[in-house]
Design a protein that fits this description.
4-stranded antiparallel β-sheet; 7-stranded mixed β-sheet; globular; Aspartate Aminotransferase, domain 2
Amino acid sequence: MHPRLAEDLDSLPDLLDAASKLAAGALAGVGERAAAVPPVAAVPAPLPGGGVGARGALEEFSRRWEPGFAASAGPRYLGFVTGGATPAALAGDWLTSAHDQNPASGMDSSAQDLERETVGWLAELFGLGAEFSGAFVTGATMSTVTGLAIAREWLGERAGVPVSEDGAAALGPVTVLSGAPHSSVLKALSFLGMGRSALRKVPLLPGREAVDVGKLAEVLETLDGPAIVVANAGTVNTVDFDDLRAIAGLKRRHDFWLHVDAAFGGFAALAPDHAALTAGLDQADSVVVDLHKWLNVPYDSAVQFTRRRDLQLRVFSNNAAYLGEIGETPDFLHLTPENSRRLRALPAWFSLTAYGRDGHREIVERCVSLARDLGARIDASPRWQLLAPVRLNVVCFAPAGDVTQDRVDALVRAIAEDGTTFLTPTVYDGRPALRAAFSNWRTTPADVERVFAALDRVAAG
């Protein structure tokens, strides 16, 4: 055994304690740490020869890399849609690494059963019935890939073409319809061989990011074969929701697979005042939910749901003698793009066990309240203009007056350099804009005050 490795093994409890203290110190200060750290050019170090041991690595990390890390787990990081990690989720994540389970197979541990239990709890949270099955994946993009891969197989079933055997080319051109699809849908279509050009945009309701269901029905009427419809349960700019129930109702007259992107908007189902937004989610054929957003578990973690596990098995089955028989309850390696995989379910299991439905509902409701607070402040300010109603947890706004992309880009840089908060740019209704997304369990009303003060400071400067 390498001397450094042997030395670290002998002192493993002390090393873990040192790492714990380093992590605890970082988290204790996350509320005051700069939300973003504008990157500077880094000079790569040469690959170590003999190595410096784990303690030396901790010191190197603390010296060279930690100062450049953003407080993305903190209360005022409002870029993208970024959650933090609840205390229980963090504990579960550490134990995930310590136990290092590979829940691809059920031959050697109970890890798969824990994942199945957690998936069942999540399905219950989102109002999905027993006909849905699911599995953990890395994020919303891979959940989208998985759902659309199953949809592709469904198109093949309708056409009498075994796509999983003969390939996407055997299926020929496909039609994918959506109003305001997330960019990951295009990425998935490219990855799956259906092509980005398969996507046809359907007109939106006036002043909305929600699809015009009447226009969708008209487009479906013109098709001479089945299609895939991608609906939104929460858009990234304004958290707008398609009328899922009305879209599902179109299935009575038209043949299509309904794929719903509920990456973070699906969490509206937890809050009684907002649950109506997700009505009809249980009528989908495949559903995307991202957990490292509003469930506040560490990256990377998402779940995919479908009512057609039989088609999912056709796409992802991995038959090999050393992997054992598929059986009545397929192992997860037969259901997702990955074979070996981290036990991503454990942090989610910990957080759901620790705080339950009520605890996670409180996080959702508080984030919505805070987003509306910031939206009201922006709407009342002469320096800013609110571009859309705050429907859930994202505030979409721009500086007052004529706005250029250069102006927005400069504001994004200035906000990042200020360090109080971090926001990401967007384009809404053809206009350059900013967006603030509230999904972190740590965020409080005091943070909103600090964020708005920073925005006014930057706008005035």
